[in-house]
Amino acid sequence: MNIVNFTPITALSGGLLIGLSVALFFIFNGRMIGISGIASNFLISKDNRIENFLFLFGLILGPLIYNQITGREINISISSSLILLIIGGVLVGFGTKLSSGCTSGHGISGISRFSLRSIIATVTFMIVGILTVLITGIV
Amino acid sequence: MNKIVSLLCGIVFGIGLVISEMINPEKVLGFLNIFRDWDPSLAFVMIGALVVSTPVFHLFKNKKKPLFSSNFLIPSNKEVDKKLIIGSVFFGAGWGLIGLCPGPAITSLALLNMNSALFVTSMFAGFYICLKVN
Fold first, then answer.
1. Is residue B10 helix, strand or coil?
2. Do the beta carbons of residue B39 and residue B33 sit within 8 Å?
3. Does the predicted model carry a pTM greater than 0.90?
4. Please, where are the H alpha helices in B1-113?
5. Which of B66, B71, B100, B122 has the fewest CB atoms below 10 angstroms from its CB?
6. Is the distance from CB of A127 to CB of B35 less than 8 angstroms?
7. Which of B17, B41, B56 sits opposite A6 (nearest CB)?
8. Spatial distance between the Cα atoms of A113 and B71, rounded to a whole number of angstroms
9. Which residues of B touch A139 (CB under 8 A)?
10. For residue B73, what are the β-bridge partners?
11. ipTM of the complex
């Protein structure tokens, strides 16, 4: 194993902002953020629909505001084929709905609560993610 | 007021995903690539987030109510069941395949990237399929 592209300072700073968002949402609105939950509830439930929409809209505004303030371009690279994007998207949607959480809901909010369910979910999706990258790197 | 908080928290979360580079699938796949060239950065994203959210949760969870809402809504399900495990396996497979999870995927729509739009549409289809089969 080699360590590459390691950016601990930006990772930690971004993480602190994510934690701040989770903390403020809990103090003011009383809910622990889980983005798969917010997104799927926005799709299927009338409860808190406006709040859920505004949160998701805020997520999309985030990069635009960052770009306005810093003047920095945001570059991402998605190199997967269209069919893999569809398969991956369906797996992520189906899986997070079935297990009631994703990287934010289980990985951050759930672990903050010391929830055993969330710790088990996080360990599981991390291991499967690592194995998937290992396998796709070989084939 | 809780609508303004929702919008602001979304913005702060989105900027956090940009600064930490979790919005970039390459960075995420680098984190999951522990057996070859490993980029440990995303562990620091989680540590940064947990350092703030954990103490705040435990300080405020026993308060009577949140500031702008009538009651706290904290998940009560404690059961480790098949759905939790199977769902996490599916999610991990999709995450490892593309390098996008729900937050970064939705946030990346800001960049008008057609690949992330296709991924998000498929993800919403996944939510819907899960709802229909359960």
1. helix
2. yes
3. yes
4. 2-19, 25-32, 41-60, 82-98, 102-107
5. B71
6. no
7. B41
8. 17
9. none
10. A31
11. 0.97
